[in-house]
């Protein structure tokens, strides 16, 4: 087993007297997907911000490729190959896909006053990179706002991959998406993994996590509630652990109903109803 | 436009040139310009004469020179209400500086450039530093400049206008650059038309083919996303305001060297003409969309309307009404065209 790309050991984070994260450990290796699961307020965003370099951890160790580090800012994280795709995706809706793809890192040709965008290269690369991820875009000139939520997510992932990310941190990539769209995004997450990247997938949806994850880290109220590998846990068990306690009966009832409706829709209507349930019982 | 076009996608019906045109921001303005042109061709007999065209072009260029940077600024998501009086400030400054220092007028012209750019920098700096809406910041600059223009001019020359600098050294060469004209047959062409066309070309190049252009669209269309991807948002905004200042300087020097004296109360209200030209030309009020060419077409509509009314021998009191109606129509047409274009693509 090679050195993990990112390894957190016993990491804690305090905001004043609030303990946002306590003693959390996590690792992700190349070609692996580590899922971080937790309900709202479990500390997922804090964890993401530490890995992305937005916040510094207060205790524990943070290793990148075996080397202990404290990231100063998001730029430092990027330079070390950690790219984070946030929920808002950082795309400009009115701009064409190819302009969005290279935004902030546009390649140029020529020099002096004739230094100009390498438009042909930009279009070509955008199309090729998206195709490599399995996204067959109709037209790279269309405004990115006209793409579906899933497609936008995929462009953001493809952009991170193209700009040399070794570790991809995805913040709830399927949160606002429909069932089909979620499936498409998960496929690209898997494609990124197959391309040799380490992926940290943040989600509150155990169904999505179990479809693609190799490791699972469960967070609850800022602490680790469990850490599992794919072989050591079933979907039912993962869901049970995430829901836990009083919500368990209700949720298993919900799941049984879905199991009857057929195996073709493993990520069918359940995620929505499960999280709805979470909201009402919280 | 790329040489190595990717293989055609079967889901993509071949896009006709018509539809591609419909997707351009300046289309509404072009249709509007054609309508106004046809209208005045019938309403005013002398409108189609070559000499009338040159007059139209001249008044279009005086607005157009400023409409270009204002359009860029609007694409970047901001307003500049001080643009109109800044032109006057720039003209006043170079005139009075040269006069008071009895220096070569080029010295005044140069110092005026620095001062005007500093005003633009101030606008951009205050905007990015305070994060207040540009409407408020530049409204403040607008009022301050209006006051300074009048106050300083009265203080220095005792009247509301500057002293003549026509007999001073360097005046004729500066005039050649900023306010010369040629006769081509019976038509008189002013140099501002060249300035205008050059600015439109440069701005279009910047917008569509440079990194700065990409950043302008991004800053106006999604500042947070732009920041997250490493676009220098603050620099882009300040640069846009300094672009407005640069063109205000060009405009101001034109006024100074074509009329020799500058009225200190001028320029108030012109900022809206620039914004109108940009909006008619397809700029979105909310930023992130528009073109420099569109602003030129918008300015051309302004030129046709303001002179067409005179040629039609109507009471020019109606002009403002006409302008307002044009603005509404153009904006509606823009919205309609864009919706159709997006629905089809």
From TrEMBL, chain B:
Which InterPro entries does UniProt cross-reference here? ABC_transp_permease (IPR001851)
Question: Could you tell me where this protein is found in the cell?
Answer: Cell membrane
Which superkingdom does the taxonomy of this entry point to?
Bacteria
CDD domains per record:
TM_PBP1_transp_AraH_like
Q: Which GO terms describe its cellular component?
A: plasma membrane
- Record keywords: Transferase included? no
Spell out where the chain crosses the membrane: 27-44, 56-74, 105-125, 132-152, 187-208, 238-259, 271-289, 296-312, 318-337
Gene Ontology MF terms in the entry: transmembrane transporter activity
What's its membrane topology?
Multi-pass membrane protein
What does the UniProt keyword field contain? Answer: Cell inner membrane, Cell membrane, Membrane, Sugar transport, Transmembrane, Transmembrane helix, Transport
Q: Which Pfam families match?
A: BPD_transp_2
Query: What is the role of this chain?
Result: Part of the binding-protein-dependent transport system for D-xylose. Probably responsible for the translocation of the substrate across the membrane.
Q: What is this protein called?
A: Xylose transport system permease protein XylH
Q: What organism is the protein native to? A: Streptomyces katrae
